[in-house]
Design a protein that fits this description.
The chain is elongated and about 90 Å long. The protein has 4 domains: 51 residues, Arc Repressor Mutant, subunit A; 85 residues, no CATH class; 51 residues, no CATH class; 107 residues, VSR Endonuclease (Endonuclease, Chain A). By secondary structure, it is α+β, with helices and mostly antiparallel strands. Helices cover 39% and strands 19% of the residues. The strands form 4 sheets. A 4-stranded mixed β-sheet has the order 9-10-11-12, sandwiched between helices. A 3-stranded antiparallel β-sheet has the order 1-3-2, with helices on both faces. The chain has a 3-stranded mixed β-sheet with strand order 4-5-6. It is built from 13 helices and 12 strands.
Amino acid sequence: MNSVLWELVELGGGLVTLRAARQVVPSWTLQSACRDSELVRVLPEVFVAAHLVGGRSGTPAISRLDPTLGHRAALAWAGGFGALSHLSALGVWGLRPPAVGDLVHLSTPASANLRTRPGVVVHRRRGLLMEPPHVVVRQGLTVTRLEQALVDSWPTMPPVERRAPVIRAVNQWLTTPERLGVALESTPKLTDRAAFRTLLTRLADGCRSPLEIWGHEHVFTGPGMPAFRRQMPVRVRRRTVYLDMFAERERVNIELDGATTHGDPRQREIDLRRDAQLASIGILVVRFAHRRLVHEADRIRQETLAILATRRTDAVGRADEGCLVLRAWAA
């Protein structure tokens, strides 16, 4: 390959556009590199070093690139008139691992002259502007804002996978249920919109995992159950801990242990120390494991109601009691 052209390709991280190449070499130099299988045209006027294009030739060239390079190629093709969106944007936001072969999703203004091509899906959107707050630059890539990307991606994923990126985004403080609600309102015809709205309600209530949502919907609501305060901050020995589900009157904290937590000795030791610290300020910790919560919902509900009733009965004398921690591990 021409040395000047190769230097330009290296500066572009393996990628070069026709417009950039024409500024330093004649057009025939680029054509020669493609003819000699040194460069591969992955999109109109966008070329990539051949050694970076893997897989079988029967699939679109852009689908055979490393996802990050594929994203860069799509944005170079868009020429400033498109932003990564939908599942591609979730990959850039770190909420869904991208993989070789994934379609690249681009959102563009309705006036942009871009069309869907093999390996690239173009979403034309009225009112979209290629500037904040509609789009942002993350890791050097132009993407739609997180809330819009989560809403857009919802119907493109299998139902069992839809909630995880939304929950993760809220847990990582990347967004809030309220901001997601605003984005959802702007998409009234979204597939399975009611399920998205219910998820946002659960997150706003303080649920922070699928297990907590399950417990809220099947166990810890209804007659006799208090209005638990979720993710309640409590100061213990100069540090703040967050309680999963706190019954304030009874001073009972319900902790739901995930499927992987129960078998981890290190995590168990951390939990024991934390529970002992909470007991020192009169908070009773009750833990339920994943298996019991899913398979013994009715029994756990009865146990919880009995514990709460006992705590209410003993409320007067509880201040004089020693540290009390009840562990409700699965057998």
